[in-house]
Write a structure and sequence with these properties.
Oligomer: single chain
Shape: rod-shaped
Structural class: alpha+beta
Order of helices and strands: HEEEEEEEEHHEEH
Largest sheet: 2 strands, antiparallel
Length: 248
Amino acid sequence: VSLGGAKEACPTGLYTHSGECCKACNLGEGVAQPCGANQTVCEPCLDSVTFSDVVSATEPCKPCTECVGLQSMSAPCVEADDAVCRCAYGYYQDETTGRCEACRVCEAGSEIPGRWITRSTPPEGSDSAAPSTQEPEAPPEQDLIASTVADVVTTVMGSSQPVVTRGTTDNLIPVYCSILAAVVVGLVAYIAFKRWNSCKQNKQGANSRPVNQTPPPEGEKLHSDSGISVDSQSLHDQQPHTQTASGQ
């Protein structure tokens, strides 16, 4: 076999100084030392640190992508695949900058034509345009709750400007806590007022009760130990008559 034929059969298209075809490193391996005077030296990539998703005689292991800010990791970084990051709920990944941007809040009565999806760069040599991750659609119940809470906050504050501009779960937690605290304070105040009012009424009723300490009238009948009732008024009236009869 001629040297020219060997060059045509070399998959990498690279040769050492001696004319040997340079070998390529497999998936999950990176080039530690490219071929030249010697053959290619490969090294395994480190899990969660570096990765290599291509078969190459020149590419070293690449650092894993870090999910920062409003991004969360939906797939970890392994030796042959990079990490997949997705934006938090209520945000989408801008296709130009790659940053997470807040979703636009549609006005009442307007339609939502579609949902933003998070796309990752497809692997080299792949023709697939399917998204690697997709933001799940919120159920109608969640949308209704978010809209109702926003309306309540706007009404309480008495302002025509909307207070809640983002329908994220993080923004709704303080609203729920404020409403719950207001309900608890109102309930405690109501119970305290009822107890105070009840004690006040009981005290007024005790002061208004009559105390019968007046002496008995002169005409009250006297009760002796023998059970005979004597009318003191009649006895007093009879005394002058008795004295008159004895004088006669």
